[in-house]
Amino acid sequence: MNLDFYKSNNINVDLAVEARDIVRGQIGQEIPGVVVDREKYSNTTVTTVKIVEDYAEQIMGKPRGNYITIEAPALRDNSREAHQEVADVLAKKLSSMINLPENANILLVGLGNWQATPDSLGPKVIEHSMVTRHMYNYAPEEIKPGMRSVSAISPGVLGITGIETAEIIKGVVEKIRPELIIVVDALAAGSVDRIATTIQITDTGVSPGSGIGNKRTGINKDTMGVPVIAIGIPTVVNAAIIAQVTLEHFLEQIQNNQALVQLSQNLNPGLMQQAISQVLAPFGGNLTVTPKEIDSLIASTSKTVAGGISMALHPAIGAEEYTMYLN
């Protein structure tokens, strides 16, 4: 699929690694102003994409900054060891983005709708996160060296609260004055293989709802006044992408059948796009798909993400003590 397909279907690409692959395929070369680095672990592959120039920012549709992608197919498996490795890698990479003193005040924000399972990753992560800000006032004896002041909120979505998410967060920021905000949100992927197997960390913030076609006020350093790190996991894929990939695989399969080659030559991209648009017309072309086991995937991945965040923010707390501090 080329860049025109995404534009014509108004599909936003949340993952920087996917945006890079799409653009690179379109222009036929590496993107000027993009630096890529890869690391391999036993159960994970980490790709760091750095957007450092205006041209790359414009063509990829992503602001300048660092995008760390942790690819871990083992996240779908019921393997405690694999999930722990992913949490460790997440903690390591998140720590590399945090340049704060031990006494820093951090705000965790779980974006999303807790009433819609594919969109509930953020609130679920908050449920499992280690918050400590209240302890500084009411139980200072429980504070250990290496623990930071962490507070957390799940502000809901505009359709539930009637208030822009960014407005809620801004109000909290003005009251508690954190030095850093970490937001967690569900993402939209460009491949079904990435659902619940990929974690993206970026220091550019987030635009709530952008992956499903909504345009909301951004949550970033410009709007909040403090650095914002965003962590996300894909939970849905646009149906147009699935339809297009299916047609492309079908055309590849019939290339060896001479009787069908002529048919495939008549299936130009315009006809394929028209067929997809007609099928998705009842949904305005904006239909997203999620697996039926998304509830269990959200439950497991939210614990992994929460564990990685807590290890990064509270390096003195071991895994055996972590649960003691959960409400």
TrEMBL record:
Q: Which UniProt keywords apply?
A: Hydrolase, Protease, Zymogen
Q: Name one Pfam family in it.
A: Peptidase_A25
Residues cleaved off as propeptide: 1-14
PTM field: Autoproteolytically processed. The inactive tetrameric zymogen termed p46 autoprocesses to a smaller form termed p41, which is active only during spore germination.
Q: List, in alphabetical order, the GO biological process terms annotated in this UniProt record.
A: proteolysis; spore germination
Can you tell which superkingdom this protein's organism belongs to?
Answer: Bacteria
- Keyword Membrane applies: no
InterPro entries registered for this protein in UniProt: Pept_HybD-like_dom_sf, Peptidase_A25
Assigned EC number: 3.4.24.78
Catalyses which reaction? Endopeptidase action with P4 Glu or Asp, P1 preferably Glu > Asp, P1' hydrophobic and P2' Ala
- The question of whether Protease is a record keyword is answered with yes
Q: Please report which protein family the annotation says this sequence is part of.
A: Belongs to the peptidase A25 family.
Subunit details: Homotetramer.
Q: What is the role of the protein in this entry?
A: Initiates the rapid degradation of small, acid-soluble proteins during spore germination.
Task: Output this protein's name.
Answer: Germination protease
Highest lineage ranks of the organism?
A: Bacteria, Bacillati, Bacillota, Clostridia, Eubacteriales
